[in-house]
Description:
The protein is α/β, with parallel strands linked by helices. It is 44% helix and 14% strand. The chain contains 10 helices and 8 strands. The strands form 2 sheets. Strands 5-4-1-6-7-8 form a 6-stranded parallel beta sheet, sandwiched between helices. α1 packs antiparallel against α4 (87-99) and α2 (48-63) crosses α3 (70-81). The radius of gyration is 19 Å and the shape is elongated.
Amino acid sequence: MQKSGRLNLQGILFDFGDTIGYIDHDENRRYERALLSIVRRYGHRKSLGELSSSLGKAYWKSNKGEMRDFQEFWEIFLKDLGVPKSPAVIKSLQQHRIGHYSTIFKLYEGTISVLTILRRKYRLALVSNCAVGLSDVLQTLDLERFFECIVLSYEIGVRKPDRRLYFKALQGLKLEPNECIFVADEISDLEGAREVGLKTLLVRQGPHTTHEAKDLNFKPDFECNSISEITRFL
């Protein structure tokens, strides 16, 4: 881990996916198979590959703010899958999703203790590129209590590294960029943070560190290998 010395910080902005939490891919596969069973129960013979593809497209559109609630999400998913939209199908799909938040989404070891410690010293915000429903996930994982401000891409309609997400979080914390640091697993997120004047910390946990990065040689101000390490210097 790179050491920082003394930082004049008042706030910390966190990414969610692959920074403090992640998707359990085995559980997610079981979830997708269960969704397929629901679709087939209503007489539509689709494959798991077709369902996974349509689900991924719906997540991506939602991530960019193209739909703001699950009614729209499932309608777009079913349309791409080639299944007529039906209130009964949508209700079954949504009920199943709600029941699997706690199995699909997991927190990295040490996340709760890290956030507990940092909340005593700093003002915390969450800034995430995410699909509709992450607010429910945060509630299920009991994370909302740690953050004074939560900024989600599907609610704002833009994704990081768009500056508006960082500024929205800073506004919520009532802090200036030079008073805060952004913690994330992706270089592209950190590039956007630096552009608005935030210090940057790379957590090398996720599989897509350089995904969408403009500069593959980008050097964060600080870096570590897991979220549990950051309290050593923050």
